[in-house]
Amino acid sequence: MSQPADFLPTVQALVQCYQAFEAYSAASIRALGLTPSQFDIIATLGNTSGMTATELGEKTLITKGTLTGVVDRQVDRGWVERAAHGSDPSCQNVRQTKSGEVLFAKAFPAQMAHLAACFADASTAEHTRWQTALRALERTFRKEQP
Asked: Which CATH architecture has domain 4-143?
């Protein structure tokens, strides 16, 4: 069984990697005039017919309490709208408006190009190694969930 001295450096490396990624990613998103949460919703809803708030929360990195406020502000800006969900009148579907689709068409490719530049020098073998290691770590966390 591993001791804290064994796994703490792994946790620190994971956190530092995530923080570095967030900082790199957020700089580009902010240059587009968006917050990371706004971009997350725009990117998640892009090329879809919309989804419920529950589905949106499951597919984004935004907590439920924050999600409502971010969606409200995007409704105010005209980027998304809420509509009745076909099968459940008490449930609402969140979907992009035409303005939101235009924003997605501009912001998503710009962000993907920004991220691609960061990975441009990595070989296919490096990508495969990283993906394998990250998926193995993910499985470790998932098997420990109740």
From this structure: Orthogonal Bundle (1.10)
**What are the residue ranges spanned by the domains of the chain?**
4-143
Model-wide pTM > 0.70:
yes
Spell out a b/e string for 54-89, using b for 16 or more CB atoms within 10 Å of the CB, else e.
eebbeebebeeeebeebbeebeeeebbbeeebeeee
Cα angle value 35/69/75 (rounded, 5°): 80
For residue range 72-124, list pLDDT tens digits in order: 999 999 999 998 877 777 788 999 999 999 999 999 999 999 999 999 999 99
Distances (CA, A) of 73 to 35, 58, 70, 81, 136: 11, 19, 5, 10, 37
